[in-house]
Amino acid sequence: MEAPTHLYEEFEANQRQEAIDRLNYFMEQSIRKVPEQWFYWFNLHERWEEGVAVKGTHL
Fold first, then answer.
1. Which of 10, 13, 45, 50 is the most buried (most CB within 10 A)?
2. pTM for this model (two decimals)
3. CB 52 within 8 A of CB 59
4. Rg (CA), the chain
């Protein structure tokens, strides 16, 4: 856990891109520290199997 980031203290309303860049940098650094905690695993065979419904759609 990290301390809260209060973007309103660092950026003005017209600095949206700078705030997004700051958040992206934070996320990148967090993932680089422990990438194994960010690994997304899914059942590959089910995901690409024909006829399996995905979020209300049908492949």
1. 10
2. 0.58
3. yes
4. 18
Residue 1 lies in a domain: no
In terms of DSSP H, where are the helices of the chain?
A: 7-10, 16-33, 44-47
| Residue appearing with tokens 């934070």 | 26
Q: Is the pLDDT of residue 8 over 60?
A: yes
For residue 2, the model assigns a pLDDT of 82
Single-letter code of the amino acid located at 3:
A
CA distance 55 to 59: 10
- State the residue range of the domain holding 50: 7-58
Question: Is 43 within 8 Å of 55 (Cβ atoms)?
Answer: no
Per residue in 24-48, pLDDT tens? Answer: 999 999 889 988 887 766 665 666 6
2, part of any domain: no
